[in-house]
Amino acid sequence: MTSDTIAPETLSFEADVARLLHMMVHSVYSDRDVFLRELISNAADACEKLRYEAITRPELLADGKALCITVTADAERKRLTIEDNGIGMSREDLVEALGTIARSGTRAFMERIEAAKAGEGAELIGQFGVGFYSAFMVAEKVEVFSRAAGGEGSWRWSSDGKGAYEIGQALSDETPARGTRVVLHLMDDAENYAQSYTLEKLIKEQSGHVAVPVYLVEKPGGEARQIADGTALWTRSKGEIKSEEYTEFYRGISGDFDEPAAIVHYRAEGRQEYSALAYVPGSRPFDLFDPDRTGRFRLYVRRVFITDEADILPRYLRFVRGLVDSADLPLNLSREMIQESPLLAAIRKGVTNRILGDLEKLAENDGDAFIKIWESFGVVLKEGIYEDWERKEQLLKLARFHSTAGDEWRSLSDYTGAMKVGQKAIYYISGDDRARLEASPQLEGFRARGVEVLLLTDPVDSFWVTSVSEFEGKTFKSVTQGGSDLPDIPLTDNTEDKVEEETSGEVNAFISFIKSTLGDAVSDVRASDRLTESAVCLVAPDHGPDRQIERLLSAAGRLETVTKPILEINPRNTRIVALAAKGDDDPAFREDVAHLLYDEARVLDGDKPVDPFAFSERLARIVERGLGG
User: Fold this and answer.
1) pLDDT greater than 90 at residue 267
2) Which of 298-312, 324-338, 593-607 has the lowest mean pLDDT?
3) Would you say residue 200 has pLDDT above 90?
4) For all residues of the chain together, what is the average pLDDT?
């Protein structure tokens, strides 16, 4: 080094490295082999970045050398080296990318481009910081030598991953002419990762389809042998791709380890030419409901990575992973052009329609496979019913529900095909617990007539049903709102005739008394034709929100006034008949009963008594009366 060389510095990580590395090693990754895939993915990202930057700065590739990744084994010294001739890193890049756990170098690249208002660029494969630190599962020390493309100077980063790292200038012979060299000093129990046959097997299994050629050097100074040719999987025909290759590629772009539940791969030709490769994951991502989560779909133009923020898919398909490679879009596509491009709008429409169409075919041909997807992502797909008006009918046909008909998932076509004579609507009840819904008193009259009721337990259900007018000519109707229309539907043969008995005068008078006693607490008190066993229940008025959506909106502070419910009384219930027969000899007792019946209905509906203290006192008085004979 010259006299003006900057001395190496020892710096602390900006995160609790020891704790997070422990989580990485023992929680995030269960298979240590994954470190190689992560490092090769990072190297591929670096090459993709350089290929992109060279569109506007061709001098960066003036040396004419093809982009590649080289893996070198050194079994004698227990070392493994992964080197690329991509974009490289400056000292600041190294500190930013490797100085903080979970800090993404590719994300920083995106932020830099946005800050410069270039309007071009993208976050690439994954979280560089996290993937890089998987190396410490097998290495007791990691060194990074890097030289930025078009920059001056070369740098060395070194750490044992225990709380600090060292950074300083590197010797010229330690660093590639351009790009990054990562050297792993392997632990004793990880020596096999310096064996060429182990490395070749892992590269072919995990990274055989990265878009950059990968070479293997079996020992320092040896000849480089190509292991992966950098052929993009999506450019090949479906017939020549094995299922293992699809899975390998999926794991590479998603960072997950599950098997894809469905694969959509096709090439569109005609007015727009593009290739699309999409995966439905086999399990639900942990951040599926993160408000900031965006789709994980990439846009390429003639195999040059452009962005993964092009919104190729609607938000309700945000769980789908994959890419589109267009032959028609310009390489200098800016962010503004991406949002406004008619061609990209056509691609969006085509890819979305194809994915939903393939899901429809899967539902028809392999119901069990589709149900697995629905159980993971149905709650998200249902967002599209009220967000995507154009595809509402298609999404309604895909939707599956639990109902009072049994434990099997039911489609809306299944439901309408089993409707009873005289039934005009698709009935549903919504809430947050299936068991409680099945026990709801509002269902009794429907069971008595064998009418199926959908059990909607996802919060999104309360919203999409309000935006859908009908399905196959049948309207949607909540069993907890308005009249039940049950008198138009015949009773089943085994239902007692007393369900249809007329309400007695005494009961009618008792109902009128309850209504006058409760006053403004309810909007009405009336005899019920939906109850067959329970004494009381609450329903919402005909107009306005039903009971569940009102709760959700009120809890979110989106509802200024709450609609007063209707209290329905079962005129055939033995308790109601007996209470009505007592007359008005004891007004205080009857008032207590009126309030207790209302609180009983609230509890059955999942609410608390209006006034717990008053409820307790009334209950105590009723009990004392009973004990007194």
Assistant:
1) yes
2) 324-338
3) yes
4) 85
How many residues in total does the chain contain?
Answer: 629
Spell out where 256-385 has E strands: 262-268, 274-280, 296-301, 304-307, 321-326
CA neighbor of 535 nearest in space, from 504, 513, 509, 507: 507
- Residue 397 contacts residue 391 (beta carbons within 8 Å): no
Q: Which two tokens stand for residue 41?
A: 């993915």
The strand pairing partners of 244, in sequence order, are none
Neighbours of 554 (CB within 10 A): 15
Amino acid code (one letter) for 513: F
Q: Look up the CATH superfamily of 9-230.
A: Histidine kinase-like ATPase, C-terminal domain (3.30.565.10)
Terminal-residue alpha carbon distance, the chain: 104
From CA 158, how far away is CA 171, in angstroms rounded? 14
Instruction: Return the CATH number of 235-371, one of 3.10.580.10, 1.10.390.10, 3.30.230.80, 3.40.50.740.
Output: 3.30.230.80
Helix (H) or strand (E) holding 20: helix 17-23
State the Rg of the chain over Cα.
33
Is the pLDDT at 89 greater than 60? The verdict is: yes
Distances 535 to 288, 339, 501 between C-alpha atoms, Å: 42, 58, 16
How is residue 353 written in tokens?
């329609």
User: In the CATH scheme, what architecture does the domain 389-488 have?
Assistant: 3-Layer(aba) Sandwich (3.40)
Strand 321-326, strand 274-280: pairing: antiparallel
587-604 vs 612-627: helix crossing angle, rounded to 10: 120
Rounded CA gap, 131 and 101, in Å? 10
Confidence (pLDDT) at 110: 40
Spatial neighbors of 268 by CB under 8 A, at least 6 apart, are: 274, 275, 276, 347, 350
Strand partners for 184:
80, 142
Instruction: Give the H or E element holding residue 215.
Output: strand 214-217
Same fold, 9-230 and 389-488: no
| Separation of alpha carbons 156 and 169, rounded Å | 6
DSSP 8-state symbol, 481: B
Q: Can you name the residues that pair with 301 across neighbouring β-strands? A: 304, 326
How far is Cα 300 from Cα 25, in angstroms, rounded to an integer? 33
Both tokens of residue 380? 């998200």
Long-range contacts of the stretch 392-400 (C-beta < 8 A, 24+):
392/468, 393/471, 394/356, 394/360, 395/356, 396/468, 396/471, 397/360, 398/356, 398/359, 398/360, 398/363, 398/374, 400/371, 400/374
Q: Is the model more confident about 300 or about 148?
A: 148
The per-residue pLDDT for range 431-485, each reduced to its tens digit, is 988 999 999 999 999 999 999 999 999 989 988 998 898 999 999 999 998 887 8
Query: Any idea which fold 498-627 has?
Result: Four Helix Bundle (Hemerythrin (Met), subunit A) (1.20.120)
Domain ranges of the chain: 9-230, 235-371, 389-488, 498-627
pTM comes to 0.69
